Amino acid sequence: MSSRLSLDSLPFDISYQIATSLDDRDLVHLSRTNRALRDATESDLIARKTVERSLLFSTEGQSVLKNRAGYTYRKAVGHRFDIHEAVATADPYSVCVLAYGADFIYNQGFLCYRAGNDIRLLNVHAADKQERVFNLLGLLRRLHPGPGSPDPDVVHRVSLLRYADGIIVFRVDDFAAQEDMLLAIDIGTRTDNPKKKRLLFRGRIPSSAPLFVRHCGTYLWYGFFSAVGGSDGVWDIHGVDLTASDEPSLVFPLAHVGDGDIGQYLTFEIYNEHLYAVSTQVASDDDERYSSYYHWFCHAPRHNRRCWNDRLWRREHCEGPINEMWTDLSIRTDEVTGRPVILECRREWPDGKSENHRTYYTQPLPTPEEALATYGETETPTMFPTFRNNSPDCPKTTDNSNEHRPAKRLRRDYHAEYESTQDQTQRQEFIAARTKHRNYNHAASTFIDLVNDPAPQADGFRSQDRLRLRTVSRKRKCPVDEVGDEGTKGLLLGPTQYNEDGSPVEGSEERFVSRGVHMWPSDDCPRELQQILCPDSRINTIKATSDERSLIYSIQCAGLPMGHKALVLISFDPQIRFPNLSSLQSVKKPSVPNKKFPIEPPQPDQSNGSLVREAKPFYQAIKWGYWLR
Length: 629
Hints:
- The protein is mainly β.
- The protein has ten helices and 33 strands.
- Helix 2 packs across helix 3, helix 2 (24-31) packs across helix 6 (73-88) and helix 5 packs antiparallel against helix 6.
């Protein structure tokens, strides 16, 4: 009698070849099939190949490459899977109030916020037990010594703009002049050169012009829109080498970019010290009568300060109208390839029909090395990709830029929030006014919304504002046609696109399936949880931001100093473990009514006279948060 071979009885070298061809999600699912496969996939040798294949450029992949203590390749794979599952299913691990402040920014896992006369910096991803405190009022008085020294009210005119690599950039409004002050301050920890200057840049900017700031540890880029360059105006871009002693500034205009809202029609981002810009504004009505393009720009400071610009096909106008209110545009770094990509959300009416929904589209951008190889040292390249338009619904044209058909999109490059055939009663949609924050987790393939979903009261007339998370995710469909929808039942799904030589397009065989809409917290959640998410019965303005593992927002809370709001963290990372949090299941009575705000933030030692010091983090004094599982 012949014995049947099973996957868990295969030799290790064959299992190794199978496992190393899987991404991190498939590897985890394989390990949960049975005990034998779990033991086989626990090998760090297999996990290393998975990291190198699918998450090398993720935070988890970079952590294991940097030899973080006790962080193995297998732990990196499992850690990333846990985060993505929490995001996709709207099932966070903890929620807490980190601080209260008048303004905040959140980037690279660091929360930077202004409380009173100080700017404070907390490493959220590491759940640090110390935070950096920068004496903002002290700096402003040093910059303006003498009888005209600023009074304490000057801190209320400070706007935090950007944090990255230990450097904070902020703006100081000057009501008495037509220019504001732009400052870049290094508040990072210093071990190699304690006497290195803190003030890296000080400049003047127009007080009313739109402004953007992007920077890394070596370069600062900022720009403002000016109409001086003509009727259409230009973006005046300034680049500053933060490592130079004399603070040289490179100034150049970014022409052919309309005055569009940043984050909607125009976006800027740093990638490997290079400044990227992408715009969807029409450069020429005649040139873009039937097609829309992404106009991209790259400035390379280390390649003889050269500039490259080009365009990439975006969409055909005949695909249907767009609800511009929901449009979001950004530049991200792909965690698998490590290259810059355009990420755009569009709410469309496909083919002009009544059905409409959001869809996120991704489009790879050339890396600086690819741009240099393609365009050489030219500053104004004229080579544009051309696309043929063979759609029967679109008018024909003899214009060279439209006579070529656009490349068909792969399913992996776009994610529709709903299928057109999906029951609309299952969507749980919210209007834009009730959607306080919206983002897309590219690695987890998940729409993330923070919405106001008022809860009806017992009398049936009044309602209380209630904040909830709403996520819509998808996953890859089984590669086997299990029911015979597209061909022979039981066979692999075939490709849907082919190259000119007849070979299948890689990735066109992939299919995806929605995981549905998830809402959190549930309608019957404990009152203590809803009280920390929404301390007041009415929600006013909310500022929120999110990254791949957490969401932070500011919300009004009774008893705080004027202009200050509570800063609430929703964490999807099981390894962000702040102390002093209570288990929500063990809470028997609300803790908020016993709190008397304002709670004073812990103050650093004032003896050394330095502008940057360390203190205990604010969350240790507040002590308001819960473990959810």
